[in-house]
Amino acid sequence: MxxxxxxxxxxxxxxxxxxxxxxxxxxxxxxxxxxxxxxxPQSHLAKNGTPTIxxxxxxxxxxxxxxxxRKKYPSITPLIFxxxxxxxxxxxxxxxxxxxxxxxGLAAWQKFSLQFIVTAVFAWFLVKFEGQNLDMxxxxxxxxxxxxxxxxxxxxxxxxxxxxxxNFTDGLDGLASSVTAAIAVFFMALAFVLGGDGxxxxxxxxxxxxxxxxxxxLFNAHKAKVFMGDTGALALGGYVAAAAYMMHxxxxxxxxxxxxxxEVASVMIQVSYFKLTHGKRVFKMAPIHHHFEKCGWSETxxxxxxxxxxxxxxxxxxxxxx
Length: 322
Known about the structure:
Blueprint: H1 2-29, H2 55-69, H3 76-99, H4 108-129, E1 136-138, E2 143-145, H5 151-169, H6 175-194, H7 199-220, H8 229-246, H9 253-256, H10 258-276, H11 288-294, H12 299-319
Antiparallel strand pairs: 1-2
């Protein structure tokens, strides 16, 4: 497993790094550029026209690894299914926004409906074909608990919530890439520590995600030459949620993916408070990474500090299960 995981990192990185110089000019020629919010930080206005849908770059690396290792590790299937199906939903949303020039993309109900259907298929495949149960490791106790009838509703909440968190985190150069790369390292380490059914698949796919994101960061770090778009962000959320369920550590997500949680919570708090107080705000801007920008942090500072928080959270997450 160790050898294959290392190979997955190298292969995915090589594909992602090699594709960047070809995909980015193609996106520029096709005029697939980002439209930046006028009410955001003024420094972001210079990003107008930056190519988006760049998530295809690291998804290609993950795809190649899947082709190489799918036969050896068939349990890769549910992980890749949720990752790529959410990526396809994101691609449709991006395509409508930047190619068809409809600024809102998919309607909220359309996106949610598609995500709900994909999540249902993932749950069905996980339980019926993979023979997985929805038991969860209770952090810091070493005990496995059965959620009973709450297991399936909880799965939908966790998967859809994680995907939303990944999407909200994708708002600064390198932020979603760096944070999720740290989470991928956590899942690799967890797979080696815990072992068990599905751990080899999680380790290999996590290696592919890490390698792909490292290759993508060559072009996505500040100042970004390309954005991942919803294509990449939704795919990453799908990977994180699927890996958590494969390893039975869904209760660890609020710890390990704490940045996702904070990003979602900041939006919920901002919107709720705005409506309740008829226009007042808790944060200068939401999601919260923009709040820190408006407080004077540079994009690089926000990205670095959020990634450091994720690394420490991942260490706590490992301590919670070993």
